[in-house]
Specification:
By secondary structure, the protein is α+β, with helices and mostly antiparallel strands. 18% of the residues lie in helices and 23% in strands. The protein has one helix and four strands, in the order αββββ.
Length: 74
């Protein structure tokens, strides 16, 4: 599988989920990929699966809110 940055994300969620997610981000932070144009971007190693609520019928995740997330297991 090839991974590449596709853009930034705004996460709308409950306070409890935001705190869990921020803790996970801090624990799994990695160096940004080569060519990343925004040096302040926080790159996180892959491994999360999220449950997201979004507008029905949209191809993109517009107006999405993170309902929950978990670590990916093989």
């Amino acid at each position: 599988m090839s991974l590449r940055p596709v853009g930034s994300a705004f996460v709308n969620s409950s306070r409890a989920i935001r705190e869990r997610l921020w803790k996970r981000v801090q624990e799994h932070a990695g160096p940004p990929p080569k060519g990343m144009k925004r040096p302040a971007t926080q790159w996180v190693k892959p491994g999360l699966i999220g449950r997201v609520k979004h507008l029905r019928g949209e191809e993109d995740l517009r107006h999405a809110s993170l309902q929950d997330f978990r670590e990916e297991t093989d």
